Each structure stands twice: as structure tokens, then as C-alpha cells.
Amino acid sequence: MPVLPSHNTARSALTCRYRCGDACSHDAPNRSLNTYFGDIVHQVSRRGALKSGAVLALAAAAGTAVATPAAASGKPTTPAAHRGPDRGAGRLPRGLRFEAVPPNTADAVTVPVGYAQQVVIRWGDPVLRGAPRFDARRQSVAAQSRQFGYNCDYMALLDPPAHCRGDQLLVVNHEYTNEEIMFFGYDPANPTREQVEIAWAAHGLTVLSVRTDRRSGRLWPISGDALNRRITATTPFELTGPAAGSDLLKTSADPTGRTVLGTLNNCGGGVTPWGTVLSGEENFNQYFANAASVTDPTAKQRLARYGLPTGTSQRKWERFDDRFDLAKEPNEANRHGWIVEIDPYDPDSVPRKRTALGRFKHEAAEPRLTSDGRVALYMGDDERFDYLYKFVSTHRFKKGTSRAAREHNLRLLDEGTLYVAKFTGDSPIAEIDGTGALPEDGDFAGSGTWIPLVTGNTSHVEGMAADEVYVFTRLAADKVGATKMDRPEDVEPHPHTGRLYVALTNNKDRGAVGKTGPDEANPRNGNKHGHILELDERRADAAATFFSWRLMLVCGDPKDPSTYFAGFDKSQVSQISCPDNIAFDEHGNLWLATDGAALGANDGLFAVPVTGPHRGHVKQFLTVPKGAETCGPIIADDRILIAAQHPGELDGATTENPGSAWPDGPGTVPRPSVVAVWESGPRH
Ligand code: FEO
Ligand code: CA
Ligand code: CA
């Protein structure tokens, strides 16, 4: 049994160890003193001017969410699975007419009555031609590099080109590996080269052609399709944008600072209007070792702000490739922590890391168009007390599928302005006491600004050159007084109103001794269960630098007085904790996948209307198996897809002593898998 570190979260220690390098057990790396005082000063009250009504009405009128072309519609459309008459669930909005799944700890995916489910693809299933069937006892580098990777996370469904044998293209991230529940006989202190190289091959992304069986409704992978692709921790990437070629990105293997091997810890993502997939490199720091060997004070500060391990890394990759050893390659870590852009329609394309989007623990990148046709991307930095960012391109998106339009669009994310968010509350700070009690005006709300950090080669941050702002974006944001948030994760625009929804997963350290206290946008001390923030940009224009905001949900057990469900009757809602990846259905209901299980039940997928009389009526749609996290929800017109990530990742679990038997049953190793759910019969 492994010796597990002590940890301070509801997640298993095993998850903390492998997913984010025990981030929770370390001090949050943001020790800047950049917020709060500003909040007090500005607090005085923009109240009235910005208060909800007027701004929300403007937002509702404009509707600037990106209308993605069919070819790029990784986003939800009509949930036919939820159409039809309401049979007994009360006057619920369309899309919400299912019986809520109660909290549970089953080792299964549990769906509402009247819904069917299917495992679409599992870790180790064949993707590329020649891939062998999965055999947990005989896994090899050659097999893994042709098979579906580990820990599926973000997913996008795209329309395929004409020559594809499938009827859709599924793109999936593989965030991280957990060697202790992947390999038989794994010794964390002495991994073998074979195990390490399998892990490299199990990271990255998969592009997979899939076909719908019209009779059964099932979705089948087409292994060996010409469009299928595996991108791994060793696939060559091009660094593009203003920081490409900077001295900060040069290594002995790449003196140009423009080519890097692999992508790591790919978490959430987004689909661009031109049909590419964006993916966030999140907890990249954990793969590197020996930050303590760096003595230069500036370099040390930079490494600390990104949480680079001072000693050996968890997986010991530095023993097998010098680039993971900061003592030997101090700049290699600077080449990770970016948003990557993949063209799933061209299996030979070189994927890109877009330096114009800044470097931090990127959760995801959600695009929409500005009123004049430029591209805005919203991005969270998932760490306690880190920030929310926006990028706005200099040039406009060109419609159409011509080669010229495509080449133009493929350069859009290389030039623009990167901003960071500052939130100001509209209630007196004394009323934000950290308990979650609403202030006198009845809601947590206020205004905010997007503070520019850098435009092209021009830095807006005193004392930092442009390439330093891109590579050490967290330090730049510290200097301009960005608001420290409770782990900003996914951001999604409402398909009709243009309002943005931001998932803030949790922050156990909010208000702790020596840590930043509550503010109106992050109002709860020791925030174990997270919250959902609604953001309206001025005139609903994604180019705006000014916005209003309010909290829609403050999550947890509805019996807990610190929770808030947009004022909806709490006796009718499902408990919910740690919202992470979010998506909209075509009716405008928000779907939330959770990552935390902080209420003792398995993680799940939830739906909630954000407008109308049922605003705040959270209902649980499904739960995932023991130890798993719900990822990548796609709320499509005929089915819902989720990725059940890290099943069986429980304290004490090993491959020999598994924490779950899902999906293959007793006597097998748990396998992270993609699951489809659809309506199959009467619901009541
Ligand atoms: Fe990989 Fe922020 O979740
Ligand atoms: Ca208020
Ligand atoms: Ca996530």
C-alpha cells in the first residue's frame, strides 16, 4: 500500500498526488498583496449604476455568444433526449424534465429512470491502425501510443469532413496518468523506463472518428480511421505568437525557442468558430524537478509563483529525460502551461502552443466573437487565489471554409490583448463576513474591469517586458491588482443572452490565518463547495473592458445556510459541490460537472435553469463511479456525453487492490472512459 501524503481536501490523497502534484498540500503560490485594498476603496458604490436589471437587459438583447458553424459545433444543441411533454415532474423548463438522481456512492454511472447509457471508449481501447486490444498486464509503449489515453477530460464533438467514415469527430483530452492504479507492481520510488514512456504516451489528446448506430442510438468508435490521431507528451508542437523565440523559451534541445515536445495535463478546452480545438495545459508544474537548484532570485521567484517542485517530481520523469530536470534545463518548464490549438481536420498538422494567451495553469479557453467580429477567449487559472483572464484578438474572424479564410483564422490567436479581471463588490465590505450570509442588498454582486496586461510586443505592466508578461503571466497579473479568486475553472457564454458563467471550484484557504479574506465575488471563508459567477460585459460585447457580475449559486448542501441557489426554494434542489466543467443546452440550461465529492457522495452532472421561475433549481442528472470525477460534458441534440475520469482513485487503492471495478467488472482494473446517455423509455 502506498504511503499517502496528508491532504486537506475532500478529494482522495491519490488524486491530489497525481492530478495536481499535491497542490492543496502546499501553500497556494500567490503570495502577492494585490487585492482587497482596492476593493475597499472602490466598494463605495457603483451600486445602482450597474445593478443587475439594466445591464442584464442589455446583455439579453445583444446575444453575442459565438454562433459556431455546424462544422465546429462541439457545443450543445437540442437535447432531444429531454424533449417532449412534461409527464409529472411539475412545470419544469424544457431540458429539465427528468427525475433527479439522488446522491450515492455506487460504483457505477447512475442515470435517471428512462435513460440508457453506454461506454463509448475506455483507456487502452484501439484508436490508430494496428493498435492491440487492451491488456492491463501486458501494456507497452507501442500499444499505448496507438490506444486511447488515460484520464479522459475535456471533449468536443465536431462534424466530420466528407472523407471520414464516421458521422462525428470526437476530440478528447487525457489530463494525467495515475501510475499506482495503472501498472501492476508499480514502485513509486523506482518507476521503470517502460512505465514512464507508457505514461508519456497516455497523456495528451485523442482525435477519434465515431459513428451513431441509428437503431440502437449507440455511438461506436471507428478505430483506424484516417482522421484518428493521438497527440502525446512527446508529439512536436510549434510555439507561436509574440513570445515564440524568446530567450525564456530556449533550451539546449531547441535553441530557437520555437519547438517543444508534447503537451501535459490537458484539462478543459473549447472549440473555435473555425473548427479547431483549444486545450489548457493545467498542472504542468508537477512534472518538473529540482527547482531548489536554481539560485538566481528572479528565476527562483518565477518558479515559486508557478509551484515548481523544489526536489524530485512525483513521477520521477527527470531520471529518464533531462528536460524535466530544472537543474539541467531551467527553461523547459516555461514551454508548458499554455493553451494549445489542435486542428482535428488535418491529422498531419503540427499542433501549436499559443503564447499570446499567457502562461498559467490553464483550465480551459472558451471563445466568442466581439460585436465587430474579433475573437475573445475566456480563461481561468485553476489555483487557489489565482485569476480570471480574457484575450481579445486584433484581427477579425473570417467566415467560410476557403483556404485563405482558414489560414487567416489559424493566426488569430497569435495577436491581440491579454487582460485579467478585477472584481469590485457593491455592498459595504463589513457585510461580507465570510459566512456566506447575503449582504443587506440581497445578493453578491458588483462591477469589474478587464485590466490589460500586454498587446502584441507592448507590455502594459511596469517593469516587465512583453515576453516576460506572456511567460510569467501570473506575476504580471499580481502587479496590476487582479482579484484573487476561488480556483477559476470553466467559463461558458449563455447561448441566448451572452452572459458568461464562471465555475469557481473551491478554496479551502479563503479567510484562513495569513491568507486573503472574503470579498463579494468570493464571499465564503473556507469555501469547500465553490460557486457560480454570472458576468455581463457592457453592451454584452466581448470586447468590453467593463462588466457587472453577480453570484448565481453558492454551492453545498442546501441545508447549509451558507449556500445560495439564486433565491430558489432550497428544499427542492439537489446538493452540489465543486462545480468544474460547465456547458449549456440549447434551451439555455446550464449543466455542471463536479470535481470534489466534498459532500461524501460521488461526483455528478447537474442541470440548472439560469432564467425564469426555475432559475437556481439545481437537479442532478447522473453520478459517476467511485473515486471518479465528472468531466467534459457535451449536451448534444441526441445524447449527453461525459468523461468519467480517474475511477477508483481512492486512498490506499493500487492496481492489485483496486478502488473500483468500473467499467469492466470484478477482477479488472478501473479504466477512465467516455459514457453516452440518452433517453430510452418512459421517465415516470
Ligand atoms: Fe483539471 Fe481545474 O481541473
Ligand atoms: Ca451586494
Ligand atoms: Ca477540471
From TrEMBL:
InterPro entries: PhoX (IPR008557), TAT_signal (IPR006311). SUPFAM superfamilies: NHL repeat (SSF101898). PROSITE patterns: TAT. It holds the Pfam family PhoX. It comes from the Bacteria. Residues 68-93 are annotated as: Disordered. PANTHER family: DUF839 DOMAIN-CONTAINING PROTEIN, SLR8030 PROTEIN. This is Phosphatase. It comes from Streptomyces nanshensis.
